[in-house]
Design brief:
139 residues, alpha+beta, three-stranded antiparallel β-sheet, 7 strands, 32% helix
C-alpha cells in the first residue's frame, strides 16, 4: 500500500508541484520531507528521494576521477528500478538539493540499488556525499 501511495504521489502530485513551483527547492537535506536526490527525464517523469531512502554513501577517490556511490534502501531500489526501466534511452538529470549535478543518457535499467555518480573534484564529491548522508546542509 505504501508503494502504491508513493507511486501515485510521484505520478500526480510531484509533476503538479513542479509545474506550479517551477522547481523543488530544498533547504536542508536532513529534513525527511526535503528531497536530497532527484531524478528527472526529458519526458517529464520524476523520482525524488530523501536521505531516509539512502542506506550508504561512499566517496571514492582514485587517479582518474572521484566517485560518489549511493546505496538505496530496498523500497527506493524498486522505485529507481521502475524509473530507470521507464526511461531507458532518455536523457536523465540528477539533482542534489535542487542543483543539477549530472545529465546524461540512461542506457539500461538499473535494479541493483547502487548508483555511481562521478566526474567531480574531491571537495565536490565529499560535499555531495555528506549531503546525501544527511550530515550537511544543502549548498
Amino acid at each position: 500500500m505504501k508503494h502504491l501511495c508513493r507511486s501515485l504521489w510521484l505520478k500526480y502530485t510531484l509533476p503538479i508541484s513542479i509545474f506550479v513551483l517551477g522547481t523543488i527547492v530544498s533547504a536542508i537535506a536532513q529534513n525527511s520531507t526535503t528531497y536530497a536526490l532527484e531524478f528527472s527525464s526529458q519526458t517529464g517523469k520524476h523520482l525524488a528521494l530523501n536521505v531516509d531512502e539512502i542506506v550508504d554513501v561512499q566517496v571514492r577517490v582514485d587517479q582518474e576521477f572521484e566517485q560518489v556511490l549511493v546505496v538505496l534502501t530496498d523500497a527506493a531500489r524498486v522505485l529507481f528500478g521502475e524509473f530507470s526501466t521507464e526511461n531507458v534511452g532518455q536523457r536523465i538529470t540528477v539533482r542534489v538539493c535542487g542543483d543539477e549535478i549530472w545529465q546524461g543518457g540512461l542506457l539500461t535499467p538499473m535494479w541493483g540499488g547502487r548508483l555511481p555518480l562521478f566526474g567531480y573534484d574531491a571537495d565536490e564529491a565529499q560535499r555531495i556525499g555528506d549531503i546525501l548522508m544527511g550530515s550537511r546542509e544543502c549548498w
